[in-house]
Amino acid sequence: DERMRAPYLETTQGTASNSATILNRVLTGDGTIERPGNIVDAGVSVDLSKHFTLTNTLNYTSWRIEGDTNTLQTSLQRATSGVQSTIITATFGSRLTSLKSYQNILDFNANYGKRFSAHAGWRTQRREVTLDGTFISRTSTSTAVTNVIGSEEESVRTNSFVGGIRFRPVDRASLIFDVDRGQNNNSFVRINPLEYTRLRARAQIRATDTLSLTGSFTSLNRLNPTPQVQNESNSRSVTISSSYEPSTRLYFDAGYDYHHLYSTANLAYFVAGNQLRTGKSLYYSRMNSVFFNSRLSVTDRLDLMIYYYYIMDRGAPAVSPGLNDLVNAYPLRRHNPEARLAYRFNNRLTGNLGYRHYSYNEKLFSFQDYRSNILTSSLRLTF
Predict the structure, then answer these.
(1) Torsion over CA of 318, 321, 326 and 330, rounded to 10 degrees?
(2) pTM across the whole model
(3) Over pLDDT 70: what percentage of the chain?
(4) Measured between alpha carbons, how far is 240 from 218 in angstroms, rounded to an integer?
(5) Could you tell me which of 66, 65, 71, 67 has the C-alpha nearest to residue 7?
(6) How far is CA 3 from CA 67, 92, 96, 166, 260, in A?
(7) Model confidence pLDDT, tens digit, residues 40-95
(8) Integer angstrom CA distances of residue 284 from 204, 316, 327
C-alpha cells in the first residue's frame, strides 16, 4: 500500500486576462492519493519422466490509483472602472486508474543431459483496465460546473507461443535458438494488442582455454493493427564479440554490434476538423557500435585499464517518400575512450586515477557538437 498527500499554497498579484488588477489571490489545495496493490506468484512442476518436465506458472497483479484534490481560490480584484470585487472559486477532482492482470505460462521441457534441451509453451494474459474521474468547479459569480469524465473499461486477452532449443555438438560449442510469437498488450485503452514475432539465434564457442567467441542474431517484427494507426516496426541486430585471457595479468575483450530499425505509422492531416489528406511517418536507424576493454597488471600492485566505445548511426538510406510522408532519422557519431590506473597500497586501500574523453555529433546539425575531457581520482577503502 502506498499513500501520498500533496498540500499546495500559492499567492499571486498582477493583471488578469480581463485587464483587472489582481490585488491579492490566494490558492490553497490539498490532494491525497492511495495505491494499494497485490502480487501473487504460483508455480508447479511435474517430472513426467527422466527427460520430460511439465511446468505451469501463474502471476496475478493488481493495483488501484485513487486520488482526489480540493482547491479554494480567493481573488481580490480591482476592475478598470475602479470597482473592487472578491471572487471565490472552489474545485474538486477525482481520478481512478485500476489494473488487474492474469498471466499463465504452460511450458513443456525436454532435457537430454548437457548435449540437448528444448522447450515449447503457451503464454496467455488477461488485463482488465478501468479509468474513471469527476471534476466539479463552483465560482461565487456563476453556477457550478460539473464534468463527469465517466468510466471507461477494457478487457484484453493475448496469447503467445514460446519455444527454444539448445544444442551442444561438442563441449566447447553451444547453439541456442528461441522463438516468441503472438500478442502483447501494455496500453490502457483503445489500443489493439500488438502482434509480434521475435527470433533469436546465439552461438558460443570456446576456441581454447583462453579464447572465447560469441555471436548472436535477433529479429523482431511488431504490428499495431489499430486501423487508424497501422504502426509497424522491424528491427534486426547482429552482435559479435570475443574475450581473451591468457593469464591472470592480462584480459581483453572486443565486439561489434549492428542494429537496423525501420518503422512506419499512418498520419492524418486535419483542417478545421476535417481530414484533408493522409500520409505516413517513416523512421530509420542504422546503428554500428564497436567496443574494446582491456586490463593489464603492470605490477603486482598496479593495474592499467583501457576502454573504448564508438557508436555511429547512419540514419535513413536514400528513399523517395510520398508527398505527405515524413522521414525521421537521427544520424550521429559518438566515441568514448577511457584509461584508468589502479594502485593497491595494501589489501584495504586502493587509489584510482582515470581519464575519459566524450564526444558527440549529430550529422544533420553541425551545432549539435559536444566535447568533454574528464579527469577523476578516488580512494577506495575496504574493511
Answers:
(1) -10
(2) 0.75
(3) 97
(4) 12
(5) 71
(6) 10, 19, 14, 47, 43
(7) 999 999 999 999 999 999 999 999 999 999 999 999 999 888 888 898 999 998 98
(8) 30, 5, 8
Reported confidence tier of residue 278, pLDDT bands at 50, 70, 90: confident
Please answer whether residues 315 and 284 qualify as being in contact, where contact means their C-beta atoms are separated by less than 8 angstroms: yes
Name the grid cell of 365: 546539425
What are the b/e assignments for 44-67, b being 16+ CB within 10 Å? eeeeeeeeebebebeeeeebeeeb
Q: What is the 3-state secondary structure (H, E, C) of the chain?
A: CEEEEEEEEEEEEEECCCCCEEEEEEEEEEEEEEECEEEEEEEEEEECCCCEEEEEEEEEEEEEEEEEEEEEEEEEEECCCCCEEEEEEEEEEEEEEEEEEEEEEEEEEEEECCCEEEEEEEEEEEEEEEEEEEEEEEECCCCCEEEECCCEEEEEEEEEEEEEEEECCCCCEEEEEEEEEEEECCCCCCCCCEEEEEEEEEEEEECCCCEEEEEEEEEEEEEECCCCCCEEEEEEEEEEEEEEEEECCEEEEEEEEEEEEEEEEEEEEEECCEEEEEEEEEEEEEEEEEEEEEEEECCCCEEEEEEEEEEEECCCCCCCCCCCCEEEECCEEEEEEEEEEEEECCCCEEEEEEEEEEEEEECCEEEEEEEEEEEEEEEEECC
Give residue for cell 581520482: 377
Closest CA to 311 of 293, 292, 285, 332: 332
- For residue 332 the three cell numbers come to 550521429
The grid coordinates listed for 74 are: 480567493
Q: Which of 348, 353, 356 shows the shortest CA–CA distance to 380?
A: 348
Q: Residue 234 has which C-alpha cell?
A: 522491424
Closest Cα to residue 340, out of 326, 323, 357? 357
C-alpha grid cell, residue 352: 584510482
Q: What is each CA distance from 279 to 113, 264, 316, 327, 351, in whole angstroms?
A: 55, 10, 18, 11, 59
C-alpha grid cell, residue 222: 511488431
Amino acid at 333: R
**Residue that the C-alpha cell 518503422 belongs to:** 263
